[in-house]
Design goal:
376 residues; alpha+beta; 7-stranded mixed sheet
């Protein structure tokens, strides 16, 4: 069920007319005329109520042309919606956020008073979404029931797949960065120790704190969306090739990833408990917060290292899953072969010859075409 959120307005002045191109926005009489468009806020609420899961809706009027820029930067679309944001003034929008973290945006379809555009927003905190095929938005009628069916059947599956691929790309980037952090640490750690591998001075501890902080920064984003990646990989695991499962040690590495996420979540929860008890105005609050950060990074070192060491399993499994999706199953392949065979010239000639033999063997007056002719 959607959570109703009142529409917010950037200013008291009316928003530009959606039918006006961006070049006609400010100062044009047409830019301030009313229209008979469907109520976007009400439509967004009704749409959210019909989508699977629980959705919150925030509708907003854009009083100024520049108000739309932050939203336009996050639109994940290379089709209708991008065209609309680039070529037209969009005076209003609604953002739908699900309990699973999905984000959709609804805007007016330019020059169509009874249609809307629904598109996905790039996942927050991900800088690799541009490497993934955009889950382009769709045009929907102002009927919320029909629109919800179209969004659930067409847009959401593409969006969820694109988000998952973007997160997998983020895993690959984080693992590569983690390897560089570890390589840098290995390159200098020996120089900070004596012959018996004891630290020479405080530089060792300071450099170790830097290492821990860098690794935690790479690991922390996955505390939020890592569980969904691991859960999907666990669901996909039985479908993948047993030989690949064994060679990649995927079951074991998935267990390690899940344990790393659970341990990291406990460390972060302890950190938030400690920092939440600090008094902001206390003279030692800043020092206490810095100490809590160092302790969190130190306690989370094992979990961040485990994630970096086993994260490649998610990338490998995603690659295997894509190959599996691109390979037709036996029944589908058999049907395709039969259809191709039926269309071949050899099959047509064989069918004609068979029909001729059957016709010659059939008694007079009992041929199929004679029966059809008589039935008419």
């Amino acid at each position: 069920m959607a959570e109703r959120t009142p529409m917010t307005r950037g200013a008291d002045s009316p928003a530009p007319d959606i039918a006006s191109p961006a070049s006609e926005q400010q100062g044009s009489p047409a830019a301030h005329r009313g229209n008979n468009r469907a109520d976007l806020a009400a439509f967004a609420q009704d749409l959210a109520a019909r989508l699977p899961g629980s959705w919150a809706v925030v509708a907003q009027d854009h009083a100024m042309y520049a108000d739309r820029f932050p939203l336009a930067d996050r639109v994940w679309d290379l089709g209708h919606v991008q065209w609309a944001f680039e070529q037209f003034v969009l005076p209003r929008s609604a953002v739908l956020t699900s309990d699973a973290g999905c984000e959709l945006v609804v805007v007016d379809r330019p020059r169509r008073t009874r249609k809307f555009l629904v598109a996905a927003l790039r996942p927050s905190g991900s800088e690799v979404a541009d490497r993934v095929k955009a889950p382009d938005g769709i045009v929907v009628d102002a009927d919320p029931a029909r629109a919800a069916s179209a969004v659930a059947d067409r847009l959401l599956p593409r969006y969820e797949q694109a988000v998952r691929e973007a997160r997998i790309e983020q895993v690959a980037v984080a693992v590569s960065a983690g390897e560089r952090v570890l390589a840098e640490w290995d390159a200098i750690s020996d120089s900070l120790c004596d012959a018996e591998h004891w630290p020479l001075d405080k530089r060792y501890g300071l450099r170790q704190q830097q290492r821990d902080a860098e690794m935690w920064a790479l690991f922390a984003p996955f505390l939020h969306h890592g569980p969904a990646l691991v859960a999907h990989a666990e669901e996909t695991l039985p479908l993948l090739d047993p030989k690949d499962r064994a060679e990649g040690r995927w079951p074991y590495r998935l267990r390690m990833l899940r344990e790393a996420l659970e341990g990291g979540a406990r460390v972060q929860a302890d950190f938030e408990f400690v920092t939440g008890a600090l008094l902001p105005d206390h003279p030692r609050a800043e020092a206490a917060f810095a100490k809590a950060v160092v302790e969190r990074n130190d306690e989370g070192w094992h979990y961040s290292l485990t994630w970096m060491e086993s994260g490649d399993a998610l990338v490998e499994m995603a690659r295997a899953e894509r190959a599996l999706r691109g390979r037709p199953d036996r029944s589908q392949q058999s049907a395709q072969v039969q259809a191709a065979h039926a269309r071949s010239p050899h099959a047509i000639r064989q069918s004609v010859a068979t029909s001729a033999v059957d016709a010659a063997a059939a008694p007079p007056g009992l041929l199929a075409h004679d029966h059809v002719r008589r039935s008419r």
